[in-house]
Amino acid sequence: MSRRAPLVLMYHGVDRVPEDRDPYAMFVTPDAFRAQIEHLLEEGFVPLSEQAFVEGRRSGTLPSRSVLITFDDGYVGVGEHAAPVLESFGVPSVLYVPAALVGGCSDWLEPRHRHPLMSGEELRAVDRRGMAVGAHGTDHRDLTRVSGDELRRQTAGARRALGELLGRPVTSFAFPFGSHDARVRAAVRAAGYETAFAVHEADGGFAVGRVDVNAVDTMRTFRLKLHPLYPRARRVSGRVPAVRRVVHDLLGRAPRERTVDLPDPAGAR
Ligand SMILES: [Zn+2]
Q1: Could you tell me the sign of the dihedral formed by the alpha carbons of 113, 119, 122, 126, in that order?
Q2: Cα 62 to middle of ligand 1, angstroms
């Protein structure tokens, strides 16, 4: 297996979150995350830092089998569970946070699906230890639907705020909801970022495609997602959701936890 472009994985949370509090399957369990990182290393993937990715892409010198691990949103479990695993293996990563929601929660989701986001102190700590912090807008809006002034706030403003928080220039950006168009990509470039990440809809160095890893992935579906042809297959099946359901039915789906409503102990109230 060879690939010209590096594999870029997109995670959201790493934590034990029951299905009814995570309907979008964003939280991979800490055990599954560790097994996935071990598998990548066993398979010979060379982990890249944000800087190695940017420089290697520019000079065309990226190793043929390389991987960049990214996380969106900045959930506290990523600092608690993912960062120590990555550090123990010496694997760098990038964490994309909405600049105005540092220390807040994922308030773009409906209340029962919201989860806490890392504080400024926590972000500075992981940034110093190999999980580089990048920008994910200011308050997680679809940037294709905001005015020009708002777009500058969401791109240049986020870069300024996070740069002040971290005490270093911020290098890369991830589009909230993976949503972008030519105007949004131009704003990100003008704000001084060196690269930006999309999800399935890739478009050059300012909309690099990523492979989404989520709570329903089994080791089997995770391995499938590492294949160089996976992004193309995903784009095709994305237009035909029934195909994706069939594929998941064939390959399996990781079991999810559910919040169990325990009956009140006898005699209580
Ligand atoms: Zn996000």
Answers
A1: positive
A2: 27
